[in-house]
Specification:
single chain, alpha+beta, 13-stranded antiparallel beta sheet, two-stranded antiparallel ribbon, 15 strands, about 20% helix, disordered N terminus, signal
């Protein structure tokens, strides 16, 4: 991912519904730095917990002599599950995601909203005397709106940052005002980029205790264990799997293709999976995750105008670590905003996510300096 422009301008997507307003009060800290990933094309500098399982799945696909389409679907689902669950056991990783999209509320209006996430995790390691860190911001901007979405723009537009240091100490920042949310202007060219920024102020949680930033305890989950975990977490309103899809549910894939490429001297696999909406819409875990992510009381996937179901395209390195993923989907349902607003609507959604595992991209120096400056201002 390069510094100037992230290739997301043509995407359509719906962010998760917002239930809060922009922050008021707090100590002004300054503009978000919009950290760019420099090394998403460099081979991971960390070991992959599910490398052995991922390589075995790829070999099964390569050696298949019959039922190749079915084998491709099975292997694709397994590789996606392993790639997502690697994050539970990694030493460190960072990703940047951008999602822009269109929501049609019929007579109640429409909106085009961009949501961007930057999440950096360094898990605690007692043997190395390494504390855990998390730096995770979400910035959401309304690009265009009409009707009630325009009237209640502040429900859809905001910025939030959760900063955890010393494994458990949480410092929360909020967007200073919705008017500070904007697209970054490149200092060299003067052109507007596709990356959002905002002004931060200190939030309510300041040095409070948060769940520890550490690897999941115990031995890593088996494939069947991952399947059980997806369902259990969905019931608790949580998810490790990306895309709100129980990817290991029986027959949830309509089709899958796997291709090989190369980067930085290693093989990169690109996998495209199309969901079967009849299966996905009756799978309890998938439905629960979809509703939770979109604050919808009723929600189901629908095929697009060409009859294609939701599609996940992802790239993994040859060790199974996620390099990139994109999800294109459409769904309709009853959306709930700020508890009191309920709208019937349809959303067209697409999201792109880039990963890096390098020392440079996961360096905390600049971020910790920001926090130290904030602490001094707060007093």
């Amino acid at each position: 991912m390069k510094k100037i422009i992230l290739r997301v301008a043509a995407l359509l997507a719906l962010p998760a519904a917002l239930t809060g307003a922009v922050a008021c009060g707090g100590t002004p800290i300054g503009e978000n730095k919009s950290y760019y990933l420099q090394d998403d094309g460099i081979y991971p500098a960390v070991s992959a917990p599910y490398e052995e399982e991922s390589r075995a799945a790829i070999e099964r696909w390569k050696s298949a002599k019959s039922n190749k389409e079915e084998v491709a679907k099975e292997v694709a689902a397994e590789l996606y599950a392993y790639a997502c669950y690697n994050e539970e056991y990694l030493d460190r990783y960072v990703y940047f995601s951008s999602q822009t999209g269109y929501t049609d509320l019929g007579k109640d209006g429409y909106g085009n909203v961009t949501t961007q996430n930057y999440k950096l995790i360094i898990n605690a390691d007692e043997q190395k005397n390494q504390p855990g860190y998390k730096y995770h911001y979400t910035i959401k901007k309304v690009n265009e709106a009409d009707g009630k979405m325009e009237s209640y723009k502040n429900l859809f537009e905001q910025g939030r940052l959760r900063f955890v240091t010393d494994t458990t100490l949480l410092y929360r920042f909020e967007c200073e005002e919705e008017d500070t949310i904007k697209y970054v202007t490149d200092a060299e060219t003067g052109e507007q980029t596709d990356v959002l920024t905002c002004g931060w102020v200190t939030g309510k949680d300041w040095g409070s205790i948060d769940p520890p930033i550490e690897k999941r305890e115990g031995q890593k989950l088996t494939l069947s264990g991952i399947e059980e975990d997806i369902t259990a977490l969905a019931d608790n309103g949580e998810a490790v799997i990306h895309g709100n899809v129980n990817i290991l549910a029986d027959n949830i894939l309509r089709s899958a293709t796997i291709t090989e490429g190369a980067m930085d001297g290693h093989t990169v696999y690109e996998i495209t999976m199309e969901l079967d909406i009849e299966v996905a819409n009756t799978d309890k875990a998938s439905q629960t995750m979809l509703k939770n992510a979109n604050e919808a009381s009723e929600c189901k996937w629908i095929d697009d105008a060409e009859g294609n179901g939701p599609t996940i395209t992802f790239q993994i390195w040859d060790n199974g670590l996620m390099k990139y993923y994109r999800m294109d989907e459409q769904w309709q349902g009853t959306m709930v905003y700020a508890v009191i607003f309920r709208f019937e609507g349809k959303a067209t959604s697409s999201q792109e996510v880039w990963y890096s595992y390098s020392d440079g991209d996961t360096d905390m120096t600049e971020k910790l300096a920001m926090l130290d400056a904030a602490k001094q201002q707060v007093g």
